[in-house]
Amino acid sequence: MAIVGLRQVNLFAPPADMEDQIGQALCHRSMAHFTQFLGQQALGFSYNSCNAAVAIAQNAAYDAVAVAGGFSVVYGSSRLYTGLDPDFNGVHVAAPGRPFSSSLLGEHAEQTAITVARAQGLAFLGHGGHYHIYVDLIPCGNCNAWLVADPDNWFVHYFAQLNNQAPVVNYKKRQRSHTFGRQMEPRLKLQKTK
C-alpha cells in the first residue's frame, strides 16, 4: 500500500513522539541482536551488512520490547540469502556462492524480516494505523518499491543514508567493542556533505 513514514533514527536525542520511541527501540534491539555476529568473516557478517527489525505483536518466543504497550521483534539481514537462517531458508532458496544479496529476489534486510514474520504467521504491531520496521540503511530503490507494493502500510525507521554508511558502521563497531572488548578494525571516515 504505502510507506506512510520514513524517519532517520536519532539515538542521541530524546524521542519526539511514539513513532520515535518505536524506531529507537527497534534500532537498539537490532544492534544488540546482530552485535554478536558482526565481524564474523566465516559467517559473512561484516559491519557493512544491513540488518533490520520488524515489530510484531507480543510473542513469548521472540525478543520483547516494553514500548507502545509492548511488542516483540523479528530480525532480518542482507546476509540471510546465504543460508544462515533456517526460518528464511524455509521460504527462500539459499545462494551461498553469490557475494551480494538481491533486492529483486527479496533478500535485503527489510524484505527478509517481513518475509520471515509472515511465513511464521506472526501478526505485526499495528500502531498508528501502520506497521513499523527498522533498517540500518534507508531502503534502496528496489526495496522502496517493494514496500510500496506491499499490501500493508509501513513506517520505516533507518539509521543511515545509502551514500554515507559510515555512521551506522562506526556505531556497530562501538557497540561490538563495548560488548566484547577491543577490536582492530579502523573507523570509517565520515563523508562530508555540502
Q: Tell me, what is the CATH class?
A: Alpha Beta
Give the overall shape, derived from the CA principal axes.
globular
Neighbour order of strands in the largest sheet = 1-6-5-2-4-3
Low-pLDDT stretches are none
Helix-strand pattern: EHEEEHHEHEH
What structural class results from the helix and strand content? alpha/beta
Separation of the first and last Cα atoms: 34 Å
Rg over alpha carbons: 16 Å
The portion of residues forming beta strands comes to: 15-25%
CATH architecture: 3-Layer(aba) Sandwich
**Largest sheet geometry:** 6 strands, mixed
Total count of domains: 1
* Total beta-strand segments: 6
List the helices and strands and how they pair.
Blueprint: E1 2-8, H1 18-35, E2 51-56, E3 63-65, E4 71-77, H2 86-89, H3 109-119, E5 131-137, H4 141-149, E6 153-160, H5 166-180
Parallel strand pairs: 1-6, 5-6
Antiparallel strand pairs: 2-4, 2-5, 3-4
Notes on the protein architecture:
This protein has 194 residues and is an alpha/beta fold. The chain has a single domain, classed as Cytidine Deaminase, domain 2. Helices cover 29% and strands 20% of the residues. It has helices spanning 18-35, 86-89, 109-119, 141-149, 166-180, and strands at 2-8, 51-56, 63-65, 71-77, 131-137, 153-160. It has a 6-stranded mixed sheet with strand order 1-6-5-2-4-3. A hairpin with a 5-residue loop joins β3 and β4. The longest helix has 18 residues, at 18-35. The model has no long low-confidence stretch (mean pLDDT 87).
